[in-house]
Amino acid sequence: MDKQLSSPSYRPLYDQIKVLITQSLIGGEWGPGDVIPSEIELAARYKVSQGTVRKAIDSLSAENILIRRQGKGTFVATHSEEVTKLRFLRLTAVDGKKELLHNELISCVKSKADNYIAKILEIKAGAATIEVKRLLTFSGRPIIYDHLIVPAATFKGLNGNKVEECNGSMYSMYESQFGIRMIRAEERLKAVGADQEVAKALGLKEGFPLLSIERVSFTYGDKPMEWRLGLCLTDDHHYMSELE
What is the structure's pLDDT at 1? Predict the structure, then answer.
C-alpha cells in the first residue's frame, strides 16, 4: 500500500480514498488527460474494496476532476476536452445558437497585488502578478471585456504572445504550459455601468448597463489561482446556469 489511511477517522472510507487520489493528482502522478489505474489496481493499492474505489471515482467524476470513458478507463479531466473547455463560460445567445468565440488581446502586463487581490489569491500584498485584459467576441461582435490577474510566481513566462496564441480557453493554456488545472470556480454577479475604458472597447456609451461576473478559480487543494472580472453585454445574451 502506497499510503496509510489515518485511523480512527470520521471521514467515510470512500472519502479518504478520494483524498488520496486527489493527493496523487496534486503531486503530478497523473496529469490532465492521463488514464489513472483501474478500480481493481487502486483497490489493491489502498487495500479497500473495489466498490469503495468506485464510489470515490464517482464523486471525483461528478466534480469534473475525472472523466469515465466507456471501454477505455478513467481519465484526468482536461480543459481541452470539448465537454469542459468552456466549462466556466456561461454566456449564451438568447436564441440558443452556437457562436464562434474569438479572443482579442488588449494588454498583458506585470503588476503587483493590491490588498484585495492579495487576499483573494492568498499571496502577499505587493507580490508580483500578471494582469491580462482581453476582448471576447461572439461571432464577430464584442460581448465580454475580460480582465484577469494571476500570481507571477506560478505562471512564469506568461506573456502577451502566449495569450494571443491561445486558441482555446485560458484554462487549457494554464494546463498545457504551466501544469495548473482549474477544477472549480466561485462567481459573484451584479449589474454595473460601463466605465470609459470598457465602453470604448465594447463600442458602447459610457454608463451602458453590463453584467459583471467576478470569478475566482481554484486548482487542487482548493488553492485560488486566478481572479477574473468579466463585463458582459447582455442585450441578446443571457447567463445560463444548470442546477442539480
Answer: 47
The residues that bridge with 178 in the sheet, in sequence order, are none
Q: What is the DSSP string of 78-138?
A: -TTSTTTTTTT--EEETT-----EEEEEEEEEEEE--HHHHHHHT--TT-EEEEEEEEEEE
Same domain for 224 and 157: yes
Split into its structural domains, the chain has a count of: 2
> What is d(CA 216, CA 41) in angstroms, rounded to the nearest whole number?
36
pLDDT of 105 reads 95
Residues 180, 156: Cα–Cα separation, whole Å: 12
For the four alpha carbons of 122, 126, 130 and 134, in that order, the dihedral sign comes to positive
By CB neighbour count within 10 A (0-12 exposed, 13-18 middle, 19+ buried), where does 231 fall?
A: buried
Q: How many CB atoms lie within 10 A of CB 106?
A: 15
181-207 pLDDT, tens digit per residue, is 898 899 999 999 999 999 999 999 999
Do the beta carbons of residue 50 and residue 40 sit within 8 Å?
Answer: yes
Residue 124 sits in a domain whose CATH number is: 3.40.1410.10
Of residues 211 and 69, which shows the higher confidence score?
211
Mean of pLDDT values over 155-166: 92
**Cell 463585463, residue located:** 231
In a domain, 2, yes or no: no
* C-alpha dihedral sign at 94, 142, 159, 129: negative
Domain that holds residue 39: 13-76
148: part of which helix (H) or strand (E)? strand 141-151
Side-chain half-sphere of 70: how many Cα atoms within 13 Å? Answer: 0
What's this model's pTM, rounded to 2 decimal places?
A: 0.77
